[in-house]
Every structure is written in C-alpha cells, then in structure tokens.
Design a protein that fits this description.
115 residues; single chain; mainly alpha; two-stranded antiparallel sheet; Molybdopterin biosynthesis moea protein, domain 2
Length: 115
C-alpha cells in the first residue's frame, strides 16, 4: 500500500483501501481502478490523498531507472497548466516554484517509502 497525493493519481491505479469522507461516507471501495472521471470527482470533493496498491517489483525498478524523467514529466505538466500565460514573468516564477514543490514532495515520499 502506498499513500499518494491525489494530484499524482493516474488512471488504472487501484485503491488499497475504502475511501471515505470526513463523515465516514463511502466514496469508493477498495480495489476500484481509478479513471479520469472518478479522479475528477475526488478532486471536486476535496480529497487530498489516496492509498493505492503498491506497484509490482518490475514497475518499481522501472520507476527507479526513470527517476531523471520525473523532472521532465512534472515540467511538461506545469507547461501545459501554465501555457496560457505565455512569458509572464510572475506566472513563470509561480510555475517554477510549483515544479520545485512537486518534485520535493515526490522525493520526500520516496524517502518515506524507503524507511
């Protein structure tokens, strides 16, 4: 089981536990495979973190070998999200800071998972 921020959720990830809101109302059951629709729904409900089933050893090895790709993926995602702002210096700085925060969060999560 791995706890991840909802912003890092990807379609086809499987929930490792039932997902409930603050009032203990069931949102999604354990084992449900995420899709874009239910990820969007969870975001609209304010869900910040989810628990997913751990990756297989093969996926983990591939992720470790692709660690340098992590920055590129995040930068591409930020470029897409901030693309409409062009070369606005304030927005470029916000984009840079957001990228640093996401990368830092992923490194802290990786370190916590290693413990």
């Amino acid at each position: 089981m791995q706890r991840i921020p909802l912003v890092d959720a990807q379609p086809d990830m499987a929930l490792a536990s039932d997902l409930v809101n603050d009032q203990q109302m069931l949102l999604l059951k354990k084992g449900v495979r995420l899709n874009t629709k239910n990820i969007r729904m969870l975001k609209s409900w304010g869900v910040a973190f989810i628990e997913i089933e751990s990756e297989s050893n093969e996926d983990t090895a591939r992720a470790a070998s692709d660690e340098d790709m992590d920055l590129t993926v995040v930068e591409n995602r930020m470029a897409h999200k901030f693309g409409a702002w062009g070369e606005d210096t304030v927005m470029l700085e916000i984009r840079r800071v957001a990228t640093d925060i996401i990368i830092g969060r992923r490194h802290r999560q990786d370190a916590a998972d290693a413990d």
